[in-house]
Amino acid sequence: MADSAGIQQGSPAIGAAGLVPAAPGAGGTEGSGAAGGSARIAVKKAQLRSSPRPKKLEKLGVYSSCKAEGACKCNGWKSQNPPPTPPRTDQQSNAVNLQEPCRSCSHTLGDHVTHLENVSEEEMNRLLGIVLDVEYLYTCVHKEEDADTKQVYFSLFKLLRKSILQMGKPMLEAQESPPFEKPSIEQGVNNFVQYKFSHLPSKERQTIMELAKMFLNQINYWQLETPSQRRQRVPNDDAAGYKANYTRWLCYCNVPQFCDSLPRYETTQIFGRTLLRSVFTVMRKQLLEQARQEKDKLPPEKRTLILTHFPKFLSMLEEEVYSHSSPIWSQDFLAGASGGQIPIHTVISAPPVARPLYYSTSPVSVDPSTRGSVSPARKTSSALEPNPVGEKRKPSEPLTHEENKRPRVVGDIPMDLINEVMATITDPAAIPETSLLSAHSARDEAARLEERRGVIEFHVIGNSLNQKPNKRILMWLVGLQNVFSHQLPRMPKEYITRLVFDPKHKTLSLIKDGRVIGGICFRMFPSQGFTEIVFCAVTSNEQVKGYGTHLMNHLKEYHIKHEILNFLTYADEYAIGYFKKQGFSKDIKVPKAKYVGYIKDYEGATLMGCELNPSIPYTEFSVIIKKQKEIIKKLIERKQAQIRKVYPGLSCFKEGVRQIPIESIPGIRETGWKPVGKGKELKDPDQLYSTLKTILQHVKSHQNAWPFMEPVKKTEAPGYYQVIRFPMDLKTMSERLKSRYYTTRKLFMADMQRIFTNCREYNPPESEYYKCANLLEKFFYTKIKEAGLIEK
């Protein structure tokens, strides 16, 4: 019965533009799902290209004109029995019949694909890639709200459609071809470095080069605002000129990142000063703001570079960008001999940001064109009386005698030391009003402060058929219906209204200045021990303020009070990431018999659950974590002060000793070092084989194992085998296991570790593959420890 959630809230440092690639379909906004979207398209193409040839012909036939005699005008074969929408994943694919007639012209599928009979597999795979790009652009056209962006998508859609019909390569027809302005942004920045910094010593000049490369990388992955957004922000700007550059950017830089059948160019290589002037001010502001927010996440060696040198670099560059007499934009500018061009490589990985991801807790997809951030969070309450949820949950019951007597874990820190450290830290009950731009601020800190000041309120409300209507509650319910309808435009308004006003459903409402700005609708099943989350949203102009996280935390507290400790919801592929951040998992703790028949099973959606811990005060959780970090920091400082002793160097090696035990090094144990425990080596070959087989099966069935199932194909990753000298994959490991190659656990673990190491070496940190490797590696070592092959 879960319908849909909204869009994830973005980072406060992101406004009308973003920092990394964003998939087409939401012009002028940015999002964290960009790299993931590109990877999904690549996976779909790989799956389609590995299909049998008849299946490929069927796919291409849909986009091929009929070749039957009699000058048939049918421009694409249509099946008599089209697959359901959305297609059922449990259906077996039927064998392709080339004699099946077209629903439109009655000629067979074979009549539509006769021109493909002698086409090579390579050419057919190229055409199939264009087909998937066409289908993706078709979706973008229908989801996009901005008229200018929609027009470009439609033009590219027609171009690729024509390329399939004519079996040609898509070529953009334009009055001008890249580059559109000289010197390019890349050349201008190179000139700037030579002009301003060529006199510096080599080491300092290298620092400037790093800043320049970082800046160029950010421009290449910057998401431009739409012409309509720019007209609102800068009414007196050259609207026609910006629109022309925006169209070119979409066609040559943005869309080709995801539709790789189109030629792709770097923004910095085909655009010049004009485009840079139009984005520089906003870009500079947001880059510096984001740097301040994430300063503690930066590696120590990059912190000074970004926080100190980068702002000065941008200020100096800004003068040259907007100066009418700057020599760096002259085509006659002569670069100094000491310099050299700046190759565009990612020096500092841009943090994944900001394109909206469209979350849906059911197969009913949320229309990306909403462009509002909708945060899942909500609560339920009494029927007509608003239930304020701001008050803190009462402490849990005192620990029992048995719990108090539980044995202390080895390594526990003595309580007297904790109390001593706590005395040196600010009163933990006081919550400092941290700047919202601080890197230390939690996602929900701003919302928590507003709640404390009385700016916002949280109430669990619902309709009732047996109590006198309360005007204020009914007004809030109408407001919630409006918020859900506006933020979730693909959901029928009648359906939203029915659930919001259904007495069995409750809604945690977020009230600001007396009006509803967001909420979460849900239904509780006390007898079954779980609650079903239906949909949630925050109105678009109140997003990026932490309201979504704070709503969900209030919802968790409310359910702990009512002794319901499990949430269930259906999430589509875009919503999974959001719910994971809120503590949801695909590992459902509720027995299936408890929820089957109570919530509807959706095709194409993933059931996710969240188990609540009644000991956690969720609305104050981030404050507690912050205090714990402070305690650990103080303890580390104390320990460092205690061991700050210099020992004499080791002289035994001069006397001919080749090796000594680590524990014999003076002072090593005082630092807290302990010998690394050795894992248990199974001596029985059959027992080792059975254990490794079980672990490998668990790894292969993990949700993040899909990139590593088979060897990497050269066609999908050009140059992979030049970078990776010793490739490894799960299929090869299965074959090795079957042949009894793994005679020790170390051989098995080495091959598995090679998979993760290879992935991180070849792929950038912001890629989906890199993230999959990290998550799967963590899962693998959990299973290894459970099997007792290494010490926990």
Keywords:
792 residues; alpha+beta; seven-stranded mixed β-sheet; 26 helices; 7 strands; 42% helix; globular; disordered N terminus; transcription; bromodomain; transcription regulation; cytoplasm
Shape estimate: globular
Unreliable spans? 1-23, 25-34, 86-92, 335-340, 342-386, 395-410, 427-440
Number of strands: 7
Alpha-carbon Rg, integer: 30 Å
Measured by DSSP, the beta-strand proportion falls in 5-15%
Number of DSSP helical runs: 26
> Could you report the average pLDDT, rounded to the nearest whole number?
76
The SS-based structural class is alpha+beta
Separation, N- and C-terminal Cα atoms? 41 Å
Quick one: biggest sheet? 7 strands, mixed
Give a written overview of the molecule.
By secondary structure, the chain is an alpha+beta fold. The chain is built from 26 helices and 7 strands. Strands 1-2-3-4-5-6-7 form a 7-stranded mixed sheet. Helix 16 runs antiparallel to helix 17. It is globular. The two termini are 41 Å apart.
Care to give the gist of this entry?
The chain is of the alpha+beta class and 792 residues long. Helices cover 42% and strands 6% of the residues.
